[in-house]
Amino acid sequence: MELRTLSYFLAVAREQNMTEAANVLHVTQPTLSRQIADLENELGKKLFTRTSRSTILTEDGMHLRQRAEEILALVNQTEDELKNDTIDLSGCIRIGAGETHVVHLLADLFVKLHDRYPRLTLELFTGNADTVEEKLAHGLLDFALMIEPFNVEHYNFIRLPEVMRLGVVTRDDSPWAQKDGITPEDLNEMPLMIPSRQSANRFDFRQWSQGKVTDETLHIVGRFDLIGNAAHFIRAGFANTISVDELLQLETGHLKFVPLKPTLSLTAVIVWKKYRLLSRSSTVFLKELRQCIDEASEADSQAQQPS
């Protein structure tokens, strides 16, 4: 497969019409049709279902679309890294992150970097942990911000200094909103929406609750991908959810965060693939991140020393 052919294929997939795709690509419709037919013959798969009005991806076509987008993104990323490896640091740092207020650490760091290197840019991808990890594994991200527990076996990582409390987000007029902490018994009683992603279900509630909370004892009424949309169901009184603190704007949303009791705290890590040659901009980013963490640790140590 040639890169040009993959570009043609993606254009047809986006436009869902052979003629319109040919216009976008500035080629003739017969030329484009022949390229797609040759690609299907090469792969031995039917990639599109054609009707009089549209050209729709088959299941095999949808799989190729995902891979083609990844391949072309990697090609563009590699070209950018090679072109931008200059003394005047430039280029793009690609970071994926789930929903967590810890992202502010990266924002503060990038402000400093951008002041020093104005040509440096940021590409921020927000998604659930499984999607972020998949993009990192395929080389579409340079770094990922992941909430622990997270299996770092295949990655290099830096643990960030902030600690996040785990608790329940509920309506501010619910019975649980009046409590100073959510006990295992409370957790078993309330209707819950939980994250659909597998990586979010690694919290050891059995150990935290000394065996009182298990998958069987929880009252699960739904699942969600990102908490922003789930918040509407919480406001409606349909359910509650387990979340880290400072994730939602609770003051104006008739919601309240109540920490777990006993306290359960989480940390976050910046991870990147092992054995991957980092671009110059990524190397500078890591150096500055380590320096910021060291400075924060030193400041904490001095603050804790008796006067």
Q: How would you describe the overall organization of this protein?
A:
A hairpin with a 4-residue loop joins strand 1 and strand 2. The mean pLDDT is 85. With 307 residues, the protein is of the alpha/beta class. It is globular, with a radius of gyration of 24 Å. The chain starts with a helix and ends with a helix. It is 42% helix and 22% strand.
What layout of secondary structure does this protein have?
Elements (H helix, E strand, L loop, with lengths): L2 H13 L2 H8 L3 H15 L4 E3 L4 E3 L1 H25 L7 E7 L5 H14 L3 E7 L2 H9 L5 E5 L7 E5 L4 E8 L12 H6 L1 E5 L9 H4 L10 E6 L2 H9 L4 E5 L10 E5 L5 E2 L1 E6 L6 H25 L3
Query: What percentage of amino acids are in beta strands?
Result: 15-25%
Helix content: 40-55%
The count of β-strands is 13
Overall mean pLDDT: 85
SS-derived structural category: alpha/beta
Specify Rg, calculated over alpha carbons. 24 Å
Largest sheet features: 6 strands, mixed
| Contiguous helical run count | 10
Report how far apart the termini are. Answer: 69 Å
SSE string? HHHEEHEHEHEEEHEHEHEEEEH
Low-confidence stretches: none
Shape: globular
Provide a concise account of the structure shown:
Helices cover 42% and strands 22% of the residues. It has 307 residues and is an alpha/beta fold.
